[in-house]
Design goal:
There is one protein chain. The protein is about 60% helix and about 10% strand. The termini are far apart. A hairpin with a 2-residue loop joins strand 1 and strand 2 (about 10-20). It has two domains: about 5-85, no CATH class; about 90-130. It has about 130 residues and is mainly alpha-helical. Strands 1-2 form a two-stranded antiparallel ribbon.
Length: about 130
């Protein structure tokens, strides 16, 4: 049985054909074996999926799909759906703003200490920049 897979690229759909799920999985495993570092893997995605050059959300989702155990949970997601998502960085920044106001703080004390140290270092850096100027 021929199985086809679509990957949306800026409104276009690229169809990859596989005779079985095992063929597709073997192909991806081969790529994973050849590309060990995050840099190599991101470069491969940028080369093979040009729309990832324009959209970090798409890049992240494809990275998760190809190179992490999340592959089993992230099947095909149309690019139209991905491009309408808020950016991951926007979500992180909104979480940060909410927590800066003291709401919904981390439940893990180590995360709270680490973020506190980072915030203090950031503030010291700004003070040092202002005093130099």
């Amino acid at each position: 049985m021929m199985r086809t897979r679509g990957a949306g690229l800026g409104g276009r759909v690229v169809v990859m054909s596989y005779n079985s799920y095992e063929d597709e999985r073997a192909d991806i495993e081969n790529v994973k074996e050849q590309l060990r570092s995050v840099k190599e893997r991101v470069e491969w995605l940028l080369k093979n999926y040009p729309e990832t050059r324009n959209d970090d959300r798409y890049l992240i989702i494809l990275y998760l799909r190809y190179f992490t155990p999340m592959r089993r949970y992230l099947d095909f997601v149309p690019y139209k759906v991905i491009k309408d998502l808020p950016s991951f960085e926007t979500i992180r920044r909104v979480r940060q703003l909410i927590q800066e106001k003291g709401k919904y703080l981390p439940t893990n004390p180590e995360v709270m200490r680490r973020r506190g140290r980072m915030m203090e270092a950031y503030r010291r850096g700004i003070v040092e920049l202002k005093s130099e100027g």
